[in-house]
Design goal:
Elements lengths: L6 E2 L6 E3 L9 E2 L2 E2 L17 E2 L10 E4 L13 E4 H4 L4 H15 L8 E6 L5 H15 L3 E5 L6 H10 L6 E7 L11 E7 L8 H11 L4 E4 L5 E2 L5 E6 L6 E7 L3 H8 L4 H9 L5 E4 L6 H11 L7 E2 L26 H7 L18 E5 L6 E5 L2 E3 L1 H10 L24 E5 L5 H9 L3 E4 L4 H7 L7 E5 L3 E4 L7 H15 L10 H12 L1 E12 L1 H13 L14 E6 L2 E2 L6 E2 L4 E5 L4 E6 L7 E11 L9 H4 L1 H11 L1 H5 L6 E2 L1
Length: 654
């Protein structure tokens, strides 16, 4: 039995593999066709004749015994572990098989259906694409869609599901990403499954997947399916030996579907005019994540920004590694996106840095590893994600997608924005905008999947939502979308700067005008990373048990209005999500929120969210970290953080 590898060369429209004999080792001389339909000369073949490994049927299914692997419970954004864990025998395959077993149980249209498989390009991404493809073929899929080089941003994957080939052709997608977590063989890897609406699988599906991982006994894989050449754009058809079935593999430009959707949301000509202003300058940092090709396509090719405005826009498996400015941590915040922040004149605490020889750009932004998150900066000015969400909603009528006066493109709707939501830990800045504008408002648990039902309900669309963890988006897709958020800001700036004879209205001007109208929600997040999970859970349970029992003098000068464990009753399907974080809500609008994060891979991360409201008539110029300091001290006392975690201070403050 031979062990030679077989590799598919992708050409448009098709390369068909078919067996001429049932011999143990079959060699195929594929016929290739030109776009006009004529056969190409054998000299045109990029690959030699191809040999299957040990069999005559590339679609034959091999059943491999396996046993459950502990700890494969998906978190808020899929399964994340160390890369070396995923590289262990059957680790990835067990999880993927459990997904397909779950899809069969819920009667998803897998047989003959289309699946999307791609990721953010981190280490092990390419190998994972091949493994998943073989299991998908064994499950009966008829078509596999893959972004070139195995790259698709998370928002682009959602766009592919919702818009490619007329829309809603794929029944789901495997997204290979650990999002903002570091990449590399000694860092993190992740996988999550998105459903037919383009959004993350709901809890009822991820719970079912977890149950399957605990009872799995076999992996079904088309082991002789050829290795897919993901470096070449094109389409290939692979036929079974008897001709009864075929699978089509299509590798495509990773930017085309997402960019096409974004063009339906924004007025690119107006933004391009903003870029032409001599007093406007721009820079964008992809942090060596998957966003690089999208940034070049949109900002350079379509909007006319200079190449020099792009930073770290070559995707790398380790996101640049420990020697780069972000230390390989593609997380768009003040701590990790230091190269961008230094260029924009913003310190780690969000305060301005002055004295530069060259004036910082007018606008700066960054994306994380899989490009669903964003950070917005003005000249020496940091926009918190909570404020960014509130400002976009307040100015939504300036964005064509939400324009109340006309139908725009394929996705917009008359009547303006009809719904908005934030995750529970996100500041209450959005609440005030929605109240003032009579926009239906929702507070959900952390996790984009909780916005999905709302976005799928016509009475609430167009819809805008966001999270304090640098995620913002709308119903144009079913994921948070870093590029969308940046374009939303650029559209607002373009609308406010349509008269080139007037001084530039800046990011700082827009945010300060917002505070003057609605007040300011001073806000900070303390992260206690890598703590003992058992200790963190005990800490949370103690606070939950204390609800209604706190002594009156436990809160110092703050007057407690409510203390509870947040739970969410979905207004659309009636599902109840419990244990979503501890809340202390005070009479002056201040809040303390505790949550144990589900996005880490080692130990647990306790997130502490601190918020203090200042009315428009108050002092809106203070340092946020100074304002919330007393709340942080109170929170540490209430939770007994040191006693349960052993930590005197947070490991990260944002």
């Amino acid at each position: 039995m031979t062990s030679h590898k077989m590799r598919v060369a992708l050409l448009v429209p098709a390369l068909v593999l078919a067996s001429a004999s049932p011999s143990p080792v079959a060699t195929f001389k594929p016929t290739m066709f030109s776009p006009s339909g004529g056969a190409l000369s054998p000299l045109s073949l990029r690959q030699p004749a191809m040999t299957l490994r040990g069999g005559s049927d590339p679609l034959a299914v091999t059943v491999k015994p396996t046993t459950p692997i502990d700890g494969q419970k998906p978190g808020t954004s899929g399964l994340r572990k160390k890369t070396r864990d995923f590289m262990k025998p059957n680790y990835l395959a067990n999880f993927v098989q459990s997904v397909f077993d779950s899809l069969e149980e819920v009667k998803a249209p897998v047989k003959g259906g289309t699946i999307v498989i791609s990721g953010d390009g981190r280490y092990y991404n390419k190998e994972a694409v091949q493994i998943i493809s073989k299991i998908a073929v064994a499950a009966g899929v008829g078509r596999i869609w893959i972004g070139k080089d195995g790259l698709l941003s998370t928002p682009a994957t959602s766009a592919v599901i919702r818009a490619r080939d007329g829309g809603f052709k794929a029944f789901g997608a495997f997204i290979l990403s650990a999002s903002h977590n570091p990449g590399g063989i000694d860092e993190d890897f992740g996988i999550k499954y998105n459903c037919e609406n383009g959004g993350p699988a709901p809890e009822k599906v991820t719970d079912l997947v977890f149950d399957k991982t605990k009872t799995i006994t076999a992996i079904h894989s088309a082991e002789d399916f050829p290795e897919i050449d993901i470096s070449a754009i094109g389409t290939t058809k692979v036929a079974s030996a008897d001709g009864s079935r075929s699978v089509v593999v299509e590798v495509f430009d990773s930017t085309e579907d997402h960019v096409a959707v974004l063009k339906q949301c924004f007025d690119f000509d107006a933004i391009k005019a903003l870029f032409k202003r001599p007093d406007f300058s721009f820079c964008y940092d992809s942090l060596h994540g998957v966003q690089g090709p999208y940034a070049h396509k949109v900002f350079v090719e379509m909007l006319g920004a200079p190449e020099s405005s792009l930073m770290n826009c070559v995707p790398k498996e380790d996101f640049g590694g420990h020697d780069c400015a972000s230390h390989g941590h593609a997380d768009p915040n003040l701590a990790n996106a230091r190269e961008l922040c230094d260029r924009m004149g913003v310190a780690k605490d969000g305060l301005p840095i002055t004295g530069q020889a060259v004036e910082p750009p007018s606008f700066g932004a960054a994306a994380d590893g899989d490009a669903d998150r964003n950070m917005i900066l003005g000249t020496r000015f940091f926009v918190t994600p909570s404020d960014s969400l509130a400002v976009i909603v307040d100015n939504s009528e300036l964005i064509p997608y939400f324009c109340p006066k006309r139908l725009w493109g394929l996705f917009g709707a008359k009547g303006g924005i009809k719904g908005a939501a934030r995750s529970m830990p996100t500041s209450c800045a959005l609440d005030r905008v929605c109240k003032a504008k009579n926009i239906p408002f929702f507070e959900t648990p952390t996790g984009w999947k909780f916005f999905g039902n709302l976005m799928d309900t016509p009475k609430y669309t167009p819809f805008i939502c966001g999270e304090e963890s640098f995620g913002t988006g709308s119903n144009h897709i079913r994921e948070k979308d870093g590029m969308w958020a940046v374009l939303a800001w650029l559209q607002i700036l373009a609308a406010k700067n349509s008269d080139a004879t007037k001084p530039l209205v800046t990011v700082e001007d827009i945010v300060k005008e917002h505070w003057a109208k609605y007040g300011r929600n001073y806000y900070a997040r303390y992260d206690y990373e890598g703590v003992d999970l058992a200790g963190a859970n005990k800490m949370m349970q103690r606070m939950a048990d204390m609800a209604g029992k706190w002594p009156a003098d436990a809160f110092g000068s703050f007057v407690l209005e409510k203390a509870d464990m947040f739970e969410y009753l979905d207004p659309i399907d009636g599902s109840l999500s419990k244990n979503q974080g501890i809340r202390f809500i005070f009479a002056d609008g201040s809040r303390i929120v505790f949550r144990v994060s589900g996005t880490g891979v080692v130990g647990a991360t306790v997130r502490l969210y601190l918020e203090k409201y200042e009315a428009p008539t108050g002092d809106l110029t203070k340092n946020p970290l100074d304002v919330v300091k007393s709340l942080g001290e109170l929170a540490a006392k209430l939770a007994e953080i040191k006693e349960f975690t052993g930590r005197d201070a947070p490991s990260l403050v944002t």
